[in-house]
Amino acid sequence: MTKIAKIRAVIGGAVMTLGATTAMAQTDVTVAVPNPSAILWGPIWAAAGEGYFEEEGLSVDVQAVDGSSAVLQAMSAGQAQIGVPGPGPVLAARARDLDAVFIYNMYPKSLFGLLVESSTGITDPAELEGQTVGVGTADGAEVAFARAILGDAGLTEGEGYEFLPVGDGGTAAVAFLRDEVDSYAGAISDAAILRSRGIELTEITPEKFLGFFGNGVATTRGYMEENPDVIEGFGRALVRGMEFMSDPANSETTLDHMAAGNPQEGEDREFAGALLDAVVERMTPTDAYADQGFGYQPPEHWEAWHQSLQDNGVLDAPLDDLSAAFTNDFVATWNGQ
Fold first, then answer.
1. CA-to-CA distance for 250 and 32, rounded, in angstroms?
2. Is 16 helix (H, G, I), strand (E, B) or coil?
3. pTM to 2 decimals?
4. Structural Rg of the chain based on CA atoms
5. What is the CATH number of the domain that holds 197?
6. Can you tell me the distance from the alpha carbon of 15 to that of 55, in angstroms, rounded to the nearest whole number?
7. In terms of residue numbers, what domain contains 150?
8. How confident is the model over 238-265, as pLDDT tens digits?
């Protein structure tokens, strides 16, 4: 295993450098991520820790900024060649004439999920009729996500079920232990906290709602067209990093790589392990698309996002060419197909 020759991490306003000093020429690549977590962007840190970027001739510098909009701003300003934004902000940016292109679907499954205690035996959202669904806040994104799932199951808020804001993570665990809620809609980090508190959970999110995928790797069209070798090398290393961290035999080493990226996040090893398991599950494609390899973007999932943003008023009108927002051109090469 190749050790990272230089890592500097300032977690508050985080600038984190990954790479190795070698005799061969290295191409510098700055990657903007929307928060300082290392586990949430695990394939990057696994690829760095195992020396995969170095083997591709890349010196990768990760800069943590505040949210997807800041990621896209960094890309637009030329401060980052690659970013890891969400799909919604990418489409909104394209409506403002930023030619950002999604090239790798890092989270092919939704970052939110609908969870029940495993002991209940509930396997279908329709079984939540008459029950209380815990959420972080009354107006959080998880509320709209859960409302759509339950509505699709034929349930109406206030009649078939009710929401109860119980906070995130630890406070949600208390709500479960006090039997204040029967289920919980939250992000993968919330699920990891609940599991680390000893609450056994089963996810009952229908597969079609998992299609509202999360953050992925993006760049500008100009950089992609001018530097195809960099894009190929970066993605190839990323896939290898994903494959490495997906192997349970590598869990401890993977957590060491993550701790190098964010030492504070690695202090609670049990929680870090639970979060890593949740991240790997969300980064693993569904059976319907597994044969396409890591990074593949189903066009119909982009269509769902596009329609949702119009329905919610984020986009005033449809984009002229939705297909220009993403490309799968590199996926086969990255996956060695």
1. 26
2. strand
3. 0.82
4. 20
5. 3.40.190.10
6. 23
7. 112-210
8. 999 999 999 999 999 999 999 999 999 9
